[in-house]
Amino acid sequence: MSKTPQINAIKGMNDILPPESARWEWLEDVVRRVMAAHAYRNVRTPIMELTQLYTRGLGEVTDIVEKEMYAFEDRADQHGKADHLALRPEGTAGLVRAVAEHNLLYDGGKRLFYMGPMFRRERPQRGRYRQFHQVGAEALGFGGPEVDAELILLAVALWRELGINNWRLELNSLGQPDERREHRAALIAYFEAHAGQLDEDAKRRLHSNPLRILDTKNPAMQALAEGAPKLIDHLGDKSRAHFAAVQAILAANGVEWRINPRLVRGLDYYNLTVFEFITDSLGAQGTICGGGRYDYLIEQIGGKPAPAVGWALGVERVLELLKEEGVHTLDPVPDAYAVIPDAAALPQVMRCLHQLRSLGVAVQMHAASGQGGEGMGSMKSQFKRADASGARFALIFGADELAEGQVTVKALRDGAGAQTRQSLAEPALWADILKGTP
Ligand code: ATP
Ligand code: MG
To answer: What is the pLDDT of residues 74-86, one digit of tens each?
Structure first.
């Protein structure tokens, strides 16, 4: 017998199912709370943008643009013109586009955050997926070091609220474009002098983007990169003062960091402060959050120049880390499970459940498996489902109860077995018992 072949999800793109999805919802709630405490407001931009937003914004010679983007040509319109579109590989470019397009900075700086899926055609492995999720925080229109520090402290607050302790902070300053040009010349001279030791990626980047060679993940290149001229030694007084001010605020807040002169980040848009939060608990994919200042991005994509700083964290990696650290989150369970011996009672029962729900009680109703018409199932099997649901109470809508306009409320957990009769006419009188609120 031939069977229709099953269709599965795309490699590297995951379904997020219960009970795991409850951890996601919990994390999202914590994020919303922490963002609100820092007065960051939510922004939602489209998942697709014109490809040129990313080629211009992220830099042509970044990993993302060179090989990781899901980009394609859209169907042509009636004039034969087709747009080049891309699934967003990150959130900053789209957010900045939206800020510029809607002139959001007209009355001063804005603090914004987003969360949602991003897409990169990378080799799937633990902590690295093709559809993954980011939470990002961005402050636009502020040029001072205090906002760099605010954003770092915002991430620290988030780790604390999530219960994540195993992280370290690495900082660097990439200075300003003129300081980078000077360093770039020194860097090219250094790598040219060691041309024999360069791998393919490095050779390709030598004249297009030599700074990125410092970010190499090739172990054979580490020593060479380690010995390269450091950008931090090429910074002028202003850049140094900015960096020092960020560090002074972190120190006053008891936050520890390490300066990593090789931290350059994967995208081209950064200047001055860059940072990463890294953990040792996740193996090779240890960066849980990264960001920095990007004062020139807005004008690069055609907006009015304005300074900006932000970060993005990887939700999958943070959730994995929570698991490693043994942080437990509660799986949501209904307050009550409705046991319904006879299907004939369903209209009346469902009216009561509807009322209970509007009073804030979470109720799961027993429903017959299969096509229906075979009855509701035995009391034994219904109680088995009630137990499995995790509910603290069973509501028993038996014929005896209904005849008296009542329902039996039976405790399934604390004080299991204890039961009372309650009035169907007045659920408001006993809803609080089910919610566990006195
Ligand atoms: P990596 O060096 O690990 O490739 P990145 O520098 O490309 O990271 P960013 O673009 O700065 O990462 O994205 C911010 C965060 O998003 C990362 O620190 C990481 O936690 C997460 N992230 C990035 N790419 C992926 C991916 N393919 N799958 C899961 N999480 C990711
Ligand atoms: Mg990457």
So the answer is: 999 999 999 999 9
